[in-house]
């Protein structure tokens, strides 16, 4: 992103550099404030992750941004256009792959894409060509002539995403694109997202999985009960919550006090003694090092070996969403406070395609 030229109106230049800008966005269902004053700034050309548990308000927020739901308060602009006043303009630039799929079960993959292509105004040959291209790119060529109701969950998500990028949108909303998918299918969807972004599309991705946001997003907002409780680059966010835990099982219980000291020193972190007398757990927090969690864990293991401590078993776990929430809510002085993580020089744009 270039810096705004001095002659441009500062408000306009901000608006054009941001794919999404919301302030105090609210949606109320009865007495339930599903989205309760959300401020977001999503730079163009990036994947922005919105991370939150069931009922956090992710889908509701996305629907307002995609003009499918009218906000009850606050403002939202997409590429500088108001989602209420300029809804038609916004709609022309965005596409949504919903949590609940939108393709027709009884049609084949090809039929779905060609039909949607025709609805978008493509000629039949153009729609056929685009459809074949996408089916090929998404590894669905063999399934092209099968009814979508016979697709697996992973194939189903892929055809959904294909349907939403028939016309390359400037902004793509992906609402929990991989919930319920196996690791291989998740990886395929992630590759697709990276490919879409490399074409210049901005992606707003909602997810319940920290590792998914980590894989794809450059910035992440964590939302809970309709509010943003933390926001920042993924590096900063992870550093604030710890990037994983190392679980170690020793052969000899009497070596545990020694192992505890070695791990604490190697990882510069607190070590918990598990109820099992040979087991320890340490958080890999990334403080004071640029190493990834796996590398830090590997070094800690090497230190244990050097100290003559026999390790029977070890595992490295990603911090779960629970741990993220615990860390974030623990660090909040009051519920209204938002953790603004310290930005690092790390990824301010794009994905690791
Ligand atoms: N149309 C609706 N009418 C009434 N309440 C709604 C409606 N849509 C959502 N809600 C409520 O708003 C809150 C936020 O729901 P939302 O679907 O946005 O959550 P989410 O973060 O997408 O959750 P999930 O991860 O389960 O998809 C929930 O309490 C939900 O019950
Ligand atoms: Mg949802």
Strand and helix order: HEEEHEEHEHHHEHEHEEHEHEEHEHE
Major sheet details? 7 strands, mixed
Low-confidence stretches: 1-15, 331-339, 342-353
Integer tally of domains: 2
The CATH class assignment of the largest domain is Alpha Beta
- Please list the strands of the largest sheet in the order they lie side by side: 6-7-8-3-9-10-15
Total count of strands: 15
Mean pLDDT: 84
Q: What is the overall silhouette?
A: globular
The CATH fourth-level homologous superfamily of the largest domain: P-loop containing nucleotide triphosphate hydrolases
Oligomer: single chain
GO molecular function: ABC-type xenobiotic transporter activity; ATP binding; ATP hydrolysis activity
Membrane topology: Peripheral membrane protein
Pfam family, one: ABC_tran
Subcellular location: Cell membrane
Question: What are the main properties of this structure?
Answer:
25% strand; binds magnesium ion; disordered N terminus; 353 residues; 12 helices; four-stranded antiparallel β-sheet; alpha/beta; Rossmann fold; Alpha-Beta Plaits
Description:
The protein has 353 residues and is α/β, with parallel strands linked by helices. The chain has 2 domains: 18-239 and 333-340, 3-Layer(aba) Sandwich (Rossmann fold), CATH 3.40.50; 243-318, Reverse transcriptase/Diguanylate cyclase domain (Alpha-Beta Plaits, 2-Layer Sandwich), CATH 3.30.70. Helix content is 36%, strand content 25%. The radius of gyration is 23 Å and the shape is globular. It starts with 9 loop residues before the first helix and ends in a 13-residue tail after the last strand. Mean pLDDT is 84; it is low at 1-15, 331-339 and 342-353. Bound molecules: adenosine-5'-triphosphate and magnesium ion. Magnesium ion binds next to helix 2. It is found in: Cell membrane. It is an enzyme of class 7 (translocase). Belongs to the ABC transporter superfamily. Drug exporter-1 (DrugE1) (TC 3.A.1.105) family. InterPro entries: AAA+_ATPase (IPR003593), ABC_transporter-like_ATP-bd (IPR003439), ABC_transporter-like_CS (IPR017871), ABC_transporter_ATP-binding (IPR050763), DrrA (IPR005894), P-loop_NTPase (IPR027417).
